[in-house]
Amino acid sequence: MPLLKNRTLEKAPISEFLRDNEEVFHCEMTNEIFRDYDDFAEKTILCNSMVWTCSVTGKANLTYEEALRSENSAKKMLATFPEHMKIPLLYIASLTKRSSFKDMADDIFSFVKRRYFVGEQVDAMLVKRDWQTCKVVKVIAPSKEELEAYKNSPEATSNSNNNESFLPPVLYKYKLIVVKDNATSNVSETSIVKFSNIRRKPFIYTTESNKLFLKQYIESSKGGNLVLKQSAIDFYNLNSVSFDAIFDGPGPEFKKTKKVRQETIASFLTKNKLIPKETTEITKPKLSKSEIISMYKEWSTVKDDLLLEDQKIIPKATPITSLIPENYLGDALCILEFMAEFSTILETRNYFPGGMSFKEMERALLEKKPGSPLVDILQLMINSIFVMQENEHARYRTTYKKKVDGISAINMENELSLTDSSKLANVAYRWCWRYHGAALRDFPVLNLTVSEILRLHLIMSGGVVSETCSSWRKANRGGFRSEDDPAIHFRLQNPHIIKHLSSQSVVELTIGDKIKLITCLMDQLLTYEEFRTAAENVREQVRSLKIETKNLQIAEKKQILESTDKINKLKKGGSFNPTLDKEIQELETELENFKSDTEYKIIDNNQSLIRSTTHVGYDRGFRRYIKLKSLKGLYVNSDELNAGTCLPEPTRHVPQLVNAEKDEVMKYLSKSSEEMNTSDKENEPSVKKENGCSEANVEKGSSTDELLMCSSDPATCVIHSKKDGSSWSFFTEREQLDELINSMNVRGVRESDLKEALSNGREFLAKYIKTTPLKYYEDTKPIESTKKSKSVNKNEDNFGYPDNMPIRDVMCTELVLTILEFEDKLYSGGIGGINHSMRAEWRELLEKMDFDKMDLTVHKHREYDDLVANVSDDDEGEASDQIPEVIYKDPAVYLGKNKDSIEMNGVVEEKELQTIKHLATTLMQVAYTIFPDNLRRPMGRVVTKSANKMNNVFKNLILNWSTSLLASTSFSQLYLHFYTLDDCVMWNKTVSCQICRKAKNLTQMLLCDDCNSGYHLYCLKPKLSEVPEGEWFCKNCIKQREEEERRNSEAAIRKKEALERRKKRESGKLEKEAEEVEFGFGSDSNDEEEPVNCTKCGDFEGDEILKCDECPRAYHLLCLDPPLRRMPRGKWVCNGCKELESSKRYKSEHVEGIRRSNRHEVENRSDLPLHNVALQELLVDVMKHKDAWPFTRPVQKIEVPDYYTVISKPMDFGTIKYNLNMGKYKYDAEFMADAQLVFGNCNAYNSSDAEVYKCGERLLKYFSKKCNELNLRRPSDMNINEEQDEEPVNKKRRMM
Hints:
Layout: E1 3-4, E2 7-8, E3 25-27, E4 32-34, H1 37-48, H2 64-79, H3 86-95, H4 101-112, E5 121-125, E6 131-140, H5 144-151, H6 154-158, E7 173-178, E8 190-194, E9 198-199, H7 207-215, E10 218-220, E11 226-228, H8 230-236, H9 243-246, H10 265-271, H11 289-300, E12 318-319, H12 326-341, H13 343-346, H14 358-366, H15 373-396, H16 418-435, H17 450-460, H18 467-476, H19 486-493, H20 495-501, H21 511-525, H22 529-572, H23 578-612, E13 615-618, E14 624-628, E15 633-637, H24 662-678, E16 689-690, E17 693-694, H25 704-707, E18 728-731, H26 734-743, H27 751-760, H28 762-768, H29 775-778, H30 807-829, H31 836-848, H32 862-869, H33 910-927, H34 947-966, H35 971-984, E19 1005-1007, E20 1014-1016, H36 1035-1078, E21 1105-1107, E22 1114-1116, H37 1135-1143, H38 1159-1163, H39 1172-1184, H40 1203-1206, H41 1213-1221, H42 1228-1245, H43 1251-1269
Antiparallel strand pairs: 1-2, 3-4, 5-6, 5-9, 6-7, 7-8, 10-11, 12-18, 13-14, 14-15, 15-18, 16-17, 19-20, 21-22
Helix pairs in contact: 4-7, 11-24, 12-21, 14-15, 15-21, 22-23, 30-33, 30-35, 33-35, 39-41
């Protein structure tokens, strides 16, 4: 395999969980499968980069395919290497003493290439000059006489300069035996031939194959010489091989090369007496101008900022002083920036009217009070997530699967995987429906319930959805899968936070855990389509601005070149010509105007670019420059973790190069080059270092810390060492900004980009940093409450209690007061409450929280006794006064292995847990005193046909709620159960807050001037400090009034247009009459049409009057019910005539051949045939409509639990299609009756502002249109006015 950094390629493993329809990416070069496109692209780029090395030949700087081809070619060459030559080559290699592989390979090749060894197959010329394949049997060395004769021969004289220390190869003779396959009949078996008559086969042994073979068996020894690997010696048994066995004569003696240190020029000249010994320096001619220019170009190129010699001192920014610990300050600023960037989607102003400030963030992280800003932040984000989920569910029906395979096989004692955790979230999701009868997003997210809702949300997030939902998420949410939900990773990595929330409040967490929670919610929000679209719009805006600016610069350069060329041509045309001078002047003026316009556009684009940019750039010390939108200003952060390591030596700082001109720089470079060339560096003593800098490099003046440069000492380096003090700072003055821009080095790879960005947005930033909120960074006093005494006003962070009062005591006291007020409302309203005989004592003991003296027995209303007594066959035991036990599982059981073995600092004390149990029992006492008829779903009665079924449903919900209530372990869980119960109570018209459901603090109650609904001033978002002057309306009324105002304004506009049209018609009519009089034609005044009054309002002015074609009634368009926007086409009949027409019946029903005008009667005829083809076509078109998604399949009870309690005859188009295919319809009227039932059920269940209701209205119009096209008769109740676009009359949806 090819090598990358001396390592083989590690292929990506193929996942075991690939689905058949899953999209993957195949890398053909490495034959790997990738799920993620980024991993596929990274591997493709890496394979095409020239960073690979051939593992066989050692060739470097190759692509992956080139390295692979090199390996295959080398392996083929090794496979064809002659086997009988391997042992001789390795034996001779063991005799060499070389440290260079090249020298070693050359020595072996020079010896072997003209010598043939025993056992080797060669080509020999034996007779008739034919070359035949032979085998070397023996090598015959020259005798002494032959050797003496060779020495005296001319051939030996010509080879006297050869440095070889072994006998010449021409003196050897070889005894050969012919290979039998190629032997002829007239040739003897053995022959002795000379060197000149023997040769190897072509290309069998080359320098390349020699090096390739040796490289496999050679390694470097400790002494530096190359030796054979021990594995090769053992495999070929080289220890038993001698030179006589493979050759003859004396063995070769290879010379050992020694490395000679290169002598300096000065010492060479001195030794050879070319210059006196006293003179050690040599003179060198000066550099040429071209060489100096080349050096200047090299010096001017962009380099790493830490390698530049002409750096300036960067101005110091003002550090941020904060109560937040330094290691969490960056995370706090990130949260602030997130809330400011997405403030529109998050609707931040509802919680923070003036925006989230830095002091509020400090309080959110440091305070431990129930009204801390942290609660508002969590409310804001959780509500935003619930809104996103609701919108996604309404549009795309994204719900969890009811049944998920493989849940029973999950071992809860082991560590859970992402897939297992996602499956368990589906089981936990059903907990809310089972014990509270509603989805989690329907719960009230309030100050006292946010801890429990946050815990449930983290446990239930990331469940498995259907394949359709999964495909939609992949397309619209960036490939998002259930396993990618940040909450899954959060609960697997931080189970201690989940356990903390099960017993304590979220404000009691540590700062780090609070930041982790908020970050998890932020990550969840960023996966939704709205947030992704907003972020992508900003990126696209920045990209388009950069492209537009670049195009403007290119167009400006092009225009300058073209205009300059035209001007130069005109100037060459003549010496003095007024016409040419005028034309030249016009061109110059036109060019100046074009340049000014272009520069203005570029400046405007740069201002917009810096306004849309958050990260501005980096300086030489890897510090980030950030423009924050939340805390307006330019901030510097020095917490960069990827700064790398220190340089080997500090960069020399040359003050004379700072702001130097080109000539000065070239002069310095020339002088430095001459000094470097004339110095004898090898003979100079080592340079002493002081404070991490060499003494020769230290310049008087600025130090490395002042210049923000590397000192090459990791312990003290200002860049690469751990930094003390504040890591965040900011600029506030325009002078600081100008000084910062001037201190940036244009030759630095980082500072050049930073300087360009700052220079382009200089004017904007100069005004922007003036608005930096300095007051937040100057006051570092501990956060204290301004009021110390308990107050009735609950507008304070600690609900008016003393600041030193623990949060749990505050929540306990508030809960007691809430239960007392709740019971009082029930008692005063006559719908429940504690028995009168024991009520006073019960309230007194509860107010004192003296639970030891309280009677905690649950006394139920008598109707609950009947319901509990009517248990199903599955229940065991007899009915009793006590609540039957139900097997309860908290959703935290699905956290896996670590759910019970988590260490926490603040474990709930036994006394506090006992108080929670007593309060839960107290709340249950109050709950069972409420009359069942005064409870709504899910805890109230469910009206069904079967009384037994009604009782079971009622009993199970109330019992599950009671069981969950008794299992509560925190005050937040008690508050959540309380609000579930409170929402189910059918309150009378007693004035109470619509948010907290409390009727106390009436002095702080604000009533809506329209609907008389009450709201506490401190419950509103944003909170109000006093009652506003004039009229005040709640949000619901404001929305209705805005809708009415919009309709009235539209009506006024239409009335005004109608009056104008009437005036135009009257003026045109007067002109026509004047013309008739002028030409002698008179007009009878009796022919004029008299104005018609509106039947409803009695007025004839205003909008156009619509007359009925059957009766004398007339109406304004807005007086109709429902109102019309424009005049209908063709014949129009009023509602009175329609009712009259529907009451009439034709008496002759059996008259054949006559088309009946009453459609309702025709549809009820038993002899009307079934038009199957037309009905099938109608169904196909309707089910393909974009608004048909709610009506194509039956409604699932798990998705809409109360649907079948409201709708007794459900119907959908999927069922209609099945009935039509199975032949269950005999007449068109039966088909139309079921279709009418679909739309009727839609209108009956859904409110008029629901998305499904609107889909049904639009689909009904389309259904009627297709019926008309196909000549199909539909019931009269389905006849609609196709010209009507007005929304239907609002309907009040049944409360859950």
